[in-house]
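Researcher: I'd like a structural prediction for the single chain below. Treat it as a standalone chain; there are no partners to consider.
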Amino acid sequence: MSAPRLSDRLSSHQPLVLGLFRIVLGLLFASEGAATLFGILGRQSSPVGDWPFWYAGVIELLCGVLVLLGAATRSAAFLSSGAMAFAYFTEHQKNGLFPLQNGGLSPALFCWAFLLLVFFGPGALSLSALTQSKGTVRDTAGLDAV
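Model: Treating it as a single chain, here is the predicted structure.
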């Protein structure tokens, strides 16, 4: 009898760790949006309709909550990833090539983390997993397929 390999033991926990990653990422992103919209956590609020900051705050708050809950995760993550890429290239890239130079480390990390969720999905502990019936798989259009 051989002991299970480390990679096998780690792989068995992938859905749970991905779910925890999604929850923390959503919470951090939603807190960015809340700080921008409501002036909390030491940040001054952005005036309503102020382009692009107020709109970014709305995306961060709404998509962050969706990702946190695991509802419409792939769609919310796709929108979030694009918003962070936009933020990086329009607000940070002009100040230097690398994120450490231009202050764009957070948008760069958020962009790639959300892109990961687009491809890997919500993982465990998600609302979408609770709403799916056993033996049924939801496709990207939300239609049931057996």
